Amino acid sequence: QVHLVESGGGSVQAGGSLTLSCAASRSIFSSVPMSWYRQAPGKQRELVARIRSGRYPDYKDSVTGRFTITRDNAKNTVYLQMNRLKPEDTAVYYCNERASGIDYWGQGTQVTVSS
Asked: How far apart are CA 3 and CA 104, in angstroms?
């Protein structure tokens, strides 16, 4: 069992930046995939970025070049640096850990981008 707590959301104008953090309640093994998802009102939750040991991170096409996912295993924390934000990035962002086939989710953090 792991608890994930997201932070760093907020309201920004288009073109601005935010950095989301996801703190885990226990050690994050480097081999465990960590991801950021988002869900906009009336839409399905979608994968935004994923980081896995030994692989380049994966990104949703629309955020490639603007978002960067990183992890600090010593701090049990995963980050999502978001630059050049657009109104269509507005959503609740969720941290996800998939360990032994089980998905763990945080409570989410709201990101609102105004035009």
From this structure: 8
> Which are the contacts of 47, defined by CB distance < 8 A and separation ≥ 6?
35, 36, 37, 58, 60
pLDDT above 90 covers a percentage of the chain that reads 81
What integer best gives the mean pLDDT of the chain? Answer: 94
Please spell the DSSP secondary structure of 55-97, one letter per residue: SPPEE-GGGTTTEEEEEEGGGTEEEEEE-S--GGG-EEEEEEE
Q: Look at residues 93, 108, 65, 89 and name the one whose alpha carbon lies nearest to residue 13.
A: 89
Q: What's the chain's length in residues?
A: 115
Q: What pLDDT digit, counting tens, does each position of 26-83 carry?
A: 776 777 899 999 999 999 999 999 998 888 999 999 999 999 999 998 899 999 999 9
Cα distance between residue 69 and residue 21, in whole Å:
10
Query: Whole-angstrom Cα distance, residue 2 to residue 105?
Result: 9
